[in-house]
Amino acid sequence: MTKTAMRGALIVLEGCDRSGKTTQSSKLVEALNNLKIPAKKISFPDRSTPIGSIINDYLSKKIDLPDKSVHLLFSANRWELEPEIRKQIEAGVTLIVDRYSYSGVVFTSAKQSIDFEWCCGPENGLPKPDLVMFLKLPISDIIKRSGFGDERYENIEFQNKVDKNYEKFKTDNFIEVDAAQDISVLTKNLLEQVVKTIDSVKNQKLDKLVL
Ligand code: Z5A
Q1: C-alpha distances in Å from residue 139, one per residue of 144, 151, 186
Q2: Read out DSSP for 59-97?
Q3: Contacts of 188 (CB under 8 A, 6+ apart)
Q4: Which of 19-28, 69-78, 161-170 is predicted least confidently?
Q5: What is the pTM of this model?
Q6: For ligand 1, mutation pick of 12, 13, 17, 25 (most atoms within 8 Å of CB)
Q7: Would you state the pLDDT for residue 98?
Q8: How far does Cα 90 stand from its chain's mean position?
Q9: Which of 47, 58, 94, 123 is 20 to 30 A from 76 in CA distance terms?
Q10: How far, in Å, is the centroid of ligand 1 from the Cα of 102?
């Protein structure tokens, strides 16, 4: 394979609220670009699209929606970006994604009477991440970080259920990382994993997600 045919990697950061995903995804993109590795950041929900704007109104408690319909909106928000994700990866750009399908499943299934398997359905077929890094932080630390408690879902009881639900995703490409580390130490540790992954998948086909 020629150098130009090498693809980028699809890297996802997951975790409970305030665990540092936004901070780390920006720092990882910056660090990769410094190493001359093409990389961009994507965040879900993407609140800039028409679907994302409804999600934003829901999260900021301006509107209420039935649980299953809002779940499908979060998933549709990812499908909106699916062609762009594939295009970027094929063009050799590594994408650092702040939340993905795993968030969709763990948050909705933390609600009463919504089946985990039902939640997985709409996610299947999306591009499969090459690496998912779960930023694990005790809830007692999360509530001390600034901004906790403003939006829907930002309460201790709910975040505990979400944290437990993440346990169901322990597969080989899903790794847990201690998010209580100092910001720069954490970036260094995550970067190591990301660079290794970029190298190991560069000649492989991007798979479809099956949850
Ligand atoms: N949701 C869903 O239900 N279904 C879906 O499909 C998706 C999402 C995709 C909004 O998500 C909600 O949508 C979310 C899940 C649900 N609900 N909750 N909870 P969001 O991603 O837009 O918002 P968020 O989860 O609330 O993320 P966040 O607020 O952006 O948090 P974060 O990105 O993990 O953390 P941060 O902004 O990087 O850091 C938070 C603070 O901690 C900040 O002051 C930092 O300076 C500080 N920080 C960060 N790292 C450290 C370290 N290492 N040490 C000390 N302090 C730190």
Answers
A1: 9, 16, 18
A2: HTTSS---HHHHHHHHHHHHHHHHHHHHHHHHTT-EEEE
A3: none
A4: 161-170
A5: 0.96
A6: 17
A7: 98
A8: 20
A9: 94
A10: 14
Q: How many alpha carbons lie under 13 Å from residue 185 in its C-beta half-sphere?
A: 6
99 lines ligand 1 (CB under 6 A): yes
C-beta 20 within 6 A of ligand 1: yes
- 2 CA → ligand 1 middle, Å: 38
Q: Which amino acid is at 154?
A: E
Would you say 186 and 177 are in contact if contact means Cβ atoms under 8 Å apart?
Answer: yes
Atom number of ligand 1 nearest to Cα 47: 22
Q: For residue 18, how far is its CA from the centre of ligand 1 (angstroms)?
A: 4
| Neighbour-count burial for 63-75, b at 16+ CB within 10 Å, e otherwise | eeeeeeebbbbbb
Inter-residue contact 202 to 7 (CB < 8 Å): yes
Tell me what pLDDT residue 145 has: 87
